[in-house]
Specification:
Number of domains of chain A: 2
Helix content of chain B: over 70%
Helix content of chain A: over 70%
CATH topology of the largest domain in chain B: MetI-like fold
Distance between the termini of chain B: 52 Å
Distance between the termini of chain A: 16 Å
Largest sheet of chain A: none
Number of strands of chain A: 0
Number of strands of chain B: 0
Order of helices and strands of chain A: HHHHHHHHHHHHH
Structural class of chain A: mainly alpha
Strand content of chain B: under 5%
Number of domains of chain B: 2
CATH class of the largest domain in chain B: Mainly Alpha
Largest sheet of chain B: none
Oligomer: heterodimer
Chain lengths: ~300, ~280
């Protein structure tokens, strides 16, 4: 907990910069609004204001700074506006309603979790195959590594449309994108983990005349756990990104991606920002959950001190 | 039925060849470790071609590799224009901006151990967030041309590079820093001659992670608005027109660009950190 104060300082600095940027980012909008309410603004025509930079305009009109923080459709909403929007859309609306962020979170989260389960499960199986089969290692592993350098997410719109034309809609197409994104990090991490026991440990098991499956369950699998959890944490945040991007191109009606798109198209920046923060909080919770499982598992295995 | 039999025969032949090569005496030679994955890839593409043409699968669902190749060869000018717009203007500009910003912040934070302790966990946390979701906001602020894509890319690559640079700058031991002090070296000479070289393996790790992120950011940001050129624009409009061969051609370009970008960074790393154990 030694790093608690520094972390709090950095976060406070980020929020301070955000709060300060609200004034110059919104000053042009605010000046127009103020003029309509007969509040004097220094260059008094909109055309003249267009030629003035944001900082200069802000310095000339200190009276309207307060208004920049409470615009309905700001360029940059202030932290308290985003917080209020998050609060109303999470706590004051029924979770089954379309206006509730919990509802949209669940739509995205269910695709994320289904895809993550498929991707991580398949990834672990393939990793076992790669470790035990030399031909598979030689032919598949280079592709698994190369595939990490490819922007796979660009496939998302195509997957959605292809599956839509085959009559499959809703959860599954998004889950497949999620699965695909979490698959390769898990394969690469798990192969590394299953290979982490050194020759001495493998030899020891051979002197015990352990069978192949005993070697797997008692040595290779346990020693791969730290690697597995590290790649699961990468995989789950990739899954969430995949599910969100999967919602973008089809005009999906529910989910974080759909909320961002709706806020963008109907000029409701607060909706976009709330969806963005909702997605960030969801990602943080998922990673935190995996960290907790990781800590518990490693402690029970007697590796708690190392982790 | 025959289509499936031919496909299975191709698979069996390819796999038999690979098993022979991989368990053979020279399986670790450089040539074979390139040939085996290549044979695997060719096998898959051949099966794809046979199944799609012989089963008469609609090109709207999955075009045959030959169709994709024809489309690719026929639309080279469009692909080059899209590549310039998305990769060169959007991804590369953003990558360089994000990288410079990350180095700058890392050097500033490095002066204070207090800030370093705060930035490492916060940066690692931010790197796990779905930052690509900021794309609609940047498109609204900076317009739909490449500037907004570069901004999204810069933010996406910033955190992984920052975290790795800050972690790398902590990498020298007290003994090494003491040695520099006995030579009478101040902060800047120590930084330039000891700590930056020691941090390079970490920095390149961050730079390599960021290459894929940069391409993803530039392509996905175009889904939120773009001029009528660009890879993300072409993918989303071609999907709308059910022109899947064009989509696949763009994906081939994206894959080649991604691999080349990563390879270029890895090559520079090999030249610059030749002394590191992982490169020898």
């Amino acid at each position: 907990m030694k790093s608690l104060v520094p972390v709090a300082t950095v976060i406070a600095a980020i929020f301070a910069i955000w709060t300060l940027s609200v004034v110059p980012m919104n000053i042009h909008l605010t000046a127009d609004l103020a003029q309509r309410q007969d509040i004097p603004v220094t260059p008094d025509t909109p055309q003249a204001r267009q030629d003035v930079g944001a900082f200069a305009l802000a310095l000339r009109n200190p009276d309207i700074w307060g208004m920049t923080y409470v615009l309905d459709r700001p360029n940059l909403p202030s932290p308290h506006q985003v917080g209020a929007e998050l609060y109303t859309s999470v706590f004051t609306v029924e979770p089954t309603s379309r206006r509730s962020l919990v509802y949209h979170a669940w739509v995205t989260l269910s695709a994320t979790l289904l895809g993550f389960a498929i991707g991580a499960g398949a990834g672990i199986l393939l990793a076992v195959g790669i470790v035990y089969n030399r031909a598979m290692d030689k032919s598949v592993m280079p592709w698994a590594i190369i595939s990490q350098t490819i922007p796979i997410l660009a496939l998302a719109p195509m997957v959605i449309v292809i599956m839509g034309s085959m009559g499959i809609q809703g959860l599954l197409p998004k889950a497949i994108i999620s699965a695909y994104l979490s698959f390769f990090p898990v394969v690469v991490g798990m192969v590394k983990g299953l290979r982490s026991p050194d020759a001495m440990q493998l030899d020891l098991l051979r002197t015990y005349s352990a069978s192949g499956s005993q070697g797997f369950w008692k040595l290779r699998l346990p020693s791969s756990m730290p690697y597995l959890f590290a790649s699961l944490k990468i995989g789950i945040s990739a899954s969430l990104v995949g599910a969100i991007v999967g919602e973008l191109p089809t005009g999906a009606r529910a989910g974080f991606g759909a909320r961002m798109l709706v806020g963008d198209q109907y000029g409701q920046p607060l909706v976009t920002w709330a969806a963005l923060f909702g997605a960030a909080i969801t990602a943080a919770l998922l990673v935190a959950l995996l960290s907790m499982i990781e800590r518990g598992t490693l402690r029970r295995m007697g590796m708690g001190a190392a982790a | 039925m025959t289509a499936w039999m031919i496909a299975i025969a191709i698979w069996a032949a390819g796999w038999w060849l690979n098993v022979r090569l991989a368990t053979g005496p020279q399986s670790d030679s450089r040539l074979l470790s390139l040939a085996i994955p290549a044979i695997f890839g060719v096998t898959l593409i051949a099966m794809w071609q046979v199944l799609v043409t012989m089963l008469g699968i609609s090109p709207v669902i999955l075009p045959a590799p030959s169709d994709i190749a024809v489309q690719f060869a026929g639309s080279v000018p469009i692909l080059i224009a899209d590549f310039n717009q998305t990769i060169v203007k959007g991804a590369l500009t953003g990558y360089v901006c994000g990288m410079i910003a990350a180095f700058g912040v890392a050097l500033l934070a490095d002066r204070s151990p207090f800030l370093t302790r705060g930035i490492l966990p916060v940066g690692a946390f931010m790197a796990a967030l779905p930052i690509v979701g900021t794309a609609p906001i940047f498109v609204k602020w900076l317009g739909s041309d490449w500037q907004s894509k570069a901004a999204v890319v810069a933010v996406m690559v910033f955190f992984p590079i920052l975290v790795n640079t800050v972690a790398g700058l902590r990498e020298t031991s007290a003994m090494q820093r003491d040695l520099m002090r006995t030579y009478g070296a101040g902060y800047w000479p120590t930084l330039r001659k000891l700590r930056i070289p020691a941090a390079l393996p970490f920095i390149f790790n961050g730079l390599k992670i960021a290459t894929t992120l940069a391409l993803i950011g530039a392509i996905v940001a175009e889904f939120f608005g773009s001029p009528t050129v660009g890879m993300g624009f072409r993918i989303s409009t071609s999907v709308g027109q059910l022109a899947m061969d064009m989509v696949w051609a763009e994906i081939v370009v994206a894959a080649l660009a991604g691999t080349a970008f990563y390879g270029a960074i890895a090559l520079i790393e090999k030249r610059v950190t030749f002394w590191h154990p992982s490169q020898r």
